[in-house]
Amino acid sequence: MPLYFEATHTGVQPGDLDGNQGRGRYLFVPGSDSRARKMADRFDDVVVRPSGRGHTLYLGTLPGDAGPVDVGVISTGMGAPSAEIILTELLHMGGRRFMRVGTCGSLQPERVLPGELVVALAAVRDESTSLRYAPPEVPSVGDLLAVRALEAACADLGLGHHVGMVHSKDAFWAREFGHGPLRAEHAAYLQMLTDNGVLATEMEVSVLYTLAACFDQQVRAQGQRVRAGAVVMVIGEPSAYDDRDAEIAAHTEGLIEAALAAAVRWDALERA
After folding, report:
1. Which of 102, 77, 81, 105 is nearest to 177 (CA)?
2. What is the pLDDT of residues 183-211, one digit of tens each?
3. Is residue 5 part of a domain?
């Protein structure tokens, strides 16, 4: 499999993803372009690579103790199939460090509360896209350096957070909200996840972690590593908020701050 090819769905160009002494840019991969733009607003020295499909790549730097940290952000869209397209293009174009920055629903509503963050140690692979790369027996696990950096960043910022398993699904309305004739099956499945300690449900972490593991294996012969982490913010039901839009916006600021701080910490851990 070639390591480089022409990206057709993103604006990425050869060399865009290089940096950080050969480790590559730390790439934030939120689901939405609006969150990507908000993150890029915090970068220094911003360069924009437009995409006709709404997956615009924003490149820049963040200040670090040892000098600027090369970063980038691009939306993956919603769900594992869209994420697989974008992530695969980034991987082929040299992307080696990834951090999902997204949203989720709580599977432990008594202790994992709206506005809190979940650092994904691993993901339940309840979607079919990652199954095109590995059978279900192969776990989907995040990079421990990324997890450590995210947990420390959340703690330093005083943000409510949890570290553990998340659930990645491929049917938003059916699986999580019981739409359709299989509602009883979906409810029983989610209860099983709750009973097994899974913290939250979202749609992209499992394919990110699976792709990272596959490509990591491919590039080790070149002395490279692919690493990935994820942090997701709990979105509650409308009744969970006094002012839903304002509270979600405020919590999103915390999510972004945690992700940016974690990237700088992650870079420091890799330099050590």
Report:
1. 105
2. 999 999 999 999 999 999 999 999 999 99
3. no
